[in-house]
Amino acid sequence: MSGTRVVLTGATGFIGSTVLRELASVGGRELASPGGADGGPGAPRGRPHITAVARRPPAHRDLADRWVAADLARPDTLRGLCDGADVLLHLACALGPDAETCAAVNVAGTAALMEQARRAGTPRIVHLSTAAVYGPGPHRGADVHDLVPAPVSPASRTRLAGEAPALAAGATVLRPGLVLGRGDRWVVPALAELVARVPARWDGGRGLLSAVGVTALARLIARLALAAPGAPAGVFHASHPEPVRCGDLLAELAAHGVLPVADDDVSGGDLAWRDLSWDECVARLRATPGRVSERQFALLARDHWYRSDRVWEVAGCAPGPGPVECVGEAAGWYLALVAESRGV
Questions:
Q1: Half-sphere exposure of 246 (CA within 13 A, CB side)
Q2: Which residue among 50, 136, 171, 201 is least crowded, i.e. fewest CB within 10 A of its CB?
Q3: Taking Cα atoms as reference points, which of 89, 91, 164, 85 lies closest to residue 119?
Q4: How far is C-alpha 340 from the chain's CA centre?
């Protein structure tokens, strides 16, 4: 799809900025391993024309051909946004605790954007959602149609509601699990807090988690945007096909110095990295107040993994190394972020 005109919302966010870099680097190279110069799925494509959308465009704007200031909470700013577009990548969302803001952005804003895409006749739409729509769990290897969503937070409830107008517009909806890598401000900082509050291998570190590196997710999204034929409309899990063992993720972060292995000042030393039952873990969490909730602790420590192979097959995109292997690439980012959160 040489010269494809792509509209990208959320272009300055964690995932959106990574997708923007991926799209900007596409020109002349293969999008994925299958195919080749014969025009197959992996054939080289010309660089797309990128319209990047954000509430506040950055000072340096060289990665996109055009920047547009727009706010999903103000539908009037979206008017005409999709005119002439071949692809809409809707990656923007509200993640905070305010239910009104989440509804305005994730539901009303998404509906207004999809109406713009419908009016413009945009033929391909990729919409980013989240596996958090499934709620508490535990979940073990379920496919999309095996679970009834039961979201808990305002963000996950409204992101589930926002899927409806996207699907009605013919979108490919992606539900990734934990997203790791440079720019992540939630997963690893939450793990660092939890290790300080509950210094142990939680429930033996056995919990299996759906996760994906942000660069792999960006590659998948770019593939879905630009490769022919496009993915069908519908909902797909978008994590790495192999789940991550919680204990392995903690050990990898500790190996890079992001998490303490045994620190008397933080953990009491004698309990550091011992196996604790889940009931013991919850009791210790409750005894040590913090920002991460018990529900979020369970999301990060107990089984929450979903079958995610189909979207990679449909896209003809190799998932690459597992998320644990990607932690080292972002170690510098995580070290600085965790040190900042500790006031170091």
A1: 26
A2: 136
A3: 85
A4: 23
Distance (Å, rounded) from C-alpha 126 to C-alpha 174? 8
Enclosing H/E stretch for 124: strand 124-128
Contact between 221 and 174 (Cβ < 8 Å): yes
Q: Which H or E element spans position 245?
A: strand 244-245
**Which of 226, 296, 225, 213 has its CA nearest to residue 14?**
213
Q: Which two tokens stand for residue 176?
A: 């990734």
In degrees and rounded to multiples of 5, residue 280 shows phi and psi of: -65, -40
* Residues near 255 by beta carbon (within 8 Å), at least 6 away in sequence: none
3-state secondary structure 175-191: ECCEEECCCCCCHHHHH
Q: What pLDDT, in 10s, does the model give residues 326-336? A: 888 899 999 99
Judged by DSSP in three states, 129 sits in coil
- The model's pLDDT over 196-229, given as tens digits with 9 standing for 90+, comes to 999 999 999 999 999 999 999 999 999 999 987 8
3 state SS of 288: coil
CA angle 248, 254, 257 (to 5 degrees): 150
For residue 52, pLDDT beyond 80? yes
First to last CA, the chain: 48
- DSSP character for 11? T
